# Entry
Amino acid sequence: MSVITGRTSLAAETPTVKVGDPAPDFTLSSHTGEEFHLADKRGTNVVLAFYPFAFSGT
Amino acid sequence: MYEREQERFRTADAQVVGVSTDSRYANAAWAAQLGGLSFPLLSDFYPHGAVAERYGVLNPRGMPERAIFVIDKAGIVRYIDVHKLVEAPDETVLFEELAKLK
# Structure
């Protein structure tokens, strides 16, 4: 899919999370095989960027 | 944009993390194609899309929406932006939100 840059924000909350909520914790493996545990990142701001598919544009 | 702007994210004390339902190996190949990445791409592979679902951004067709969550140093969600699948979020707003945190 071709990806354009834009400001069409569809929502500022989701069915399960809204601003002010504690971020749901998780542990997942990275592309280099390291474990990433969200709770370990306290003290750092985190930008969690969901994307549909690898290779689908940034 | 995320790799290009790493310096600005560092200045904002922010760690970027990408999440999709791709396998670790697809993500590794994509990172290599992009010339290497300094931030992790995470595989929400099994149970499929479980983390995306918990965040409320699993598209019914099985992949995450293009969405950004800014989480502050205390683990609280401070900004949410859900985008169209074909549209990459504009970074201007993101950096404005990060500047509010510090």
About this structure: Chain A has a mean pLDDT of 87. Strands of chain A lie at 4-6, 9-11, 27-30, 35-37, 45-50.
